[in-house]
């Protein structure tokens, strides 16, 4: 027997001896393993770590451990494999999602798949990018720059913060781009014993799925991408499309308020009321509801309609606008998405550091602005596109947070080049405030024949749990790889002021421009 045949025989024996997805420790393509054990935070799930190289170009170099959690399929006999998930951000914890969002997926999905969440490199339990909390608090107060002096001050601050974060984070700081995460996902796929990847990505998590399909087309089983990123956009297009989709969601809110007496501003000129609030915010006259010592900046105010349309929470938005105007405490408890935005800050750790996953965006998007003159022209264009919202708090904050980023970056924008995969399912709401429908349509167009776009005709960020139509369509795709007909549209579920949206996602990214801590 030749040496080659002996080696091949051993490899085939190992393949048979290791049950697919059921071993206590599954070996990755790099020879590493996940030792599963009951999670400390929730023993009903299993947790472990996956060791991966910091630099994919140096697989024998330094490594980090990625935190992983899974919930096993409830029907082992019907089990298909693992559904690897990423809830977006960047900065959202897939481990937390697996541990705490048990009811997010349908019973049929949890019956047929192990749900596997991970904290991407640079996030949460996976060597997070950290910075000095004190330096983070020193960010220039007004991102709506007024002069070249302001522009230079902002560049200087970004440079100082970048150096601080690099020093405190360590060598991973320069390797948190999504292409590196894609390599990690492939290692995780192998570690859980799946020959091909089944994946659900939400918001920024869609970029992971898109780039995985581009890099590993032959290893794709089914990728469901919900609320899509368009990674082809340069600075102006990034800001302009973001402004357009934020304004669209404001228009939808205004239309509801005009037709529904449940809106406390129903009998008033909503746009005039909003314009007055913006003018007062610019003068520093507004404060956070219930926190009279915390000034509400212009960007803080704009974030309110932006984030509440994730739900949407239109009734609560109108009530809070009135409370801000009068200085009163809102009479009703605000939903979590409001309280998180208005009063909750990323709390410093005991060592005085704070997480800052914005670094991931800066390694995925090159968003240069050369000087104040160019900045002012871009801002004027955004404000023409979005006369009420002015900017998208998401794309504007990303751009400002990455201003002055040295080049080259690891994963610059490009049009998707995907060939040889099964058809991917991309889903998006028609009126998504953050990842607009135009982004999903663009991504699907770039992918071409290997993409199918599912449109939810309603509102909010994320579509999986919006209706039986959206959930059922995505479930059938993940389970049976059954695709909806081209051009499929799920009708909007009518908004009612007394209904709670099925699933409410937090903001898709930690916005770096925050007001002072109310404490």
Structure description:
With 519 residues, this protein is of the alpha/beta class. It has two domains: 12-60 and 68-128 and 177-232 and 412-490, 3-Layer(aba) Sandwich (Rossmann fold); 130-175 and 233-411 and 495-519, no CATH class. The chain is 39% helix and 16% strand. The chain contains 17 helices and 16 strands. The strands form four sheets. The chain has a ten-stranded mixed β-sheet, sandwiched between helices.
Number of strands: 16
Number of domains: 2
Please indicate the percent range of residues in DSSP E strands (runs of 2 or more). 15-25%
Residues in helices, as a percent range: 25-40%
SSE-based structural type: alpha/beta
Oligomer: single chain
What about the largest sheet?
10 strands, mixed
Overall pLDDT score: 88
Rounded Rg:
23 Å
The general outline is globular
Distance between the termini: 74 Å
Residue windows where pLDDT falls under 50 for at least 5 positions = 1-31, 502-519
Q: Specify the number of helices.
A: 17
Strand line-up across the major sheet: 3-4-5-7-6-9-10-14-15-16
Write the layout of secondary structure elements.
Blueprint: H1 3-17, E1 25-27, E2 33-35, E3 37-38, E4 46-53, E5 63-71, E6 81-86, H2 94-100, H3 107-112, E7 113-118, E8 130-132, H4 133-137, H5 148-169, H6 178-191, E9 197-202, H7 205-215, E10 220-226, H8 235-259, H9 270-282, E11 287-288, E12 291-295, H10 298-308, H11 314-326, H12 336-343, E13 353-355, H13 358-364, H14 372-385, H15 393-401, E14 424-431, H16 437-447, E15 451-459, H17 468-480, E16 489-490
Helix pairs in contact: 6-7, 8-14, 8-15, 10-12
């Amino acid at each position: 027997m030749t040496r080659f045949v002996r080696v091949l025989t051993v490899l085939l024996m190992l393949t048979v001896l290791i049950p697919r997805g059921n071993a206590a420790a599954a070996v990755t393509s790099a020879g590493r393993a996940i030792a599963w054990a009951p999670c400390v935070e929730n023993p009903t799930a299993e947790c472990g770590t996956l060791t991966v190289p910091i630099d994919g170009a140096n697989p024998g170099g330094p490594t980090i451990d990625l935190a992983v959690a899974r919930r096993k399929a409830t029907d082992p006999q019907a089990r298909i494999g693992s559904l690897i998930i990423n809830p977006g951000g960047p900065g959202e914890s897939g481990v937390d999602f697996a541990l705490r969002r048990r009811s997010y997926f349908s019973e049929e999905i949890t019956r047929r798949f192990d749900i596997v969440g991970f904290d991407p490199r640079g996030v949460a339990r996976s060597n997070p990018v950290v910075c000095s909390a004190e330096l983070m608090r020193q960010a220039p107060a007004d991102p709506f720059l007024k002069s070249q002096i302001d522009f230079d001050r902002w560049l200087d601050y970004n440079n100082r913060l970048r150096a601080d974060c690099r020093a405190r984070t360590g060598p991973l700081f320069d390797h948190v781009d999504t292409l590196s995460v894609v390599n990690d996902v492939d290692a995780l796929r192998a570690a859980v014993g799946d020959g091909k990847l089944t994946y659900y990505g939400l918001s920024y998590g869609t970029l992971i799925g898109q780039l995985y399909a581009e890099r590993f087309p032959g290893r794709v089983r089914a990728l469901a991408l919900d609320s899509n990123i368009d990674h082809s956009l340069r600075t102006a297009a990034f800001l302009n499309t973001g402004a357009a989709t934020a304004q669209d969601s404001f228009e939808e809110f205004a239309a509801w308020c005009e037709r529904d007496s449940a809106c406390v501003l129903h009998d008033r000129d909503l746009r005039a009321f909003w314009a007055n609030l913006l003018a007062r915010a610019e003068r520093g006259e507004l404060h956070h509801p219930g926190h009279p010592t915390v000034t509400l900046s212009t960007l803080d105010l704009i974030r309110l309609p932006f984030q509440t349309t994730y739900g949407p929470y239109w009734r609560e938005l109108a009530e809070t606008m009135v409370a801000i105007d009068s200085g009163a405490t809102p009479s009703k408890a605000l939903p979590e998405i409001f309280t998180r935005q208005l009063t909750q800050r990323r709390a410093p750790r005991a060592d005085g550091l704070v997480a800052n996953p914005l670094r991931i965006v800066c390694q995925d998007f090159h968003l240069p602005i050369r000087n104040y003159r160019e900045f002012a022209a871009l801002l004027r264009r955004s404000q023409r596109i979005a006369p009420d919202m002015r900017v998208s708090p998401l794309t504007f904050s990303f751009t400002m947070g990455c201003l002055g980023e040295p080049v080259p970056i690891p994963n610059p924008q490009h049009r998707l080049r995907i060939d040889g995969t099964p058809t991917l399912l991309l889903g998006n709401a028609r009126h998504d405030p953050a990842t607009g429908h135009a982004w999903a349509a663009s991504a699907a167009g770039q992918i071409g024949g290997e993409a199918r776009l599912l449109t939810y005709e309603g509102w909010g960020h994320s579509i999986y749990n919006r209706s039986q139509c959206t959930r059922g369509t995505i479930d059938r795709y993940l389970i049976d790889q059954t695709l909806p007909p081209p051009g499929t549209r799920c009708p909007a579920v009518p908004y009612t002021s007394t209904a709670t949206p099925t699933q409410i996602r937090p903001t898709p990214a930690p916005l770096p421009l925050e007001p002072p801590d109310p404490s």
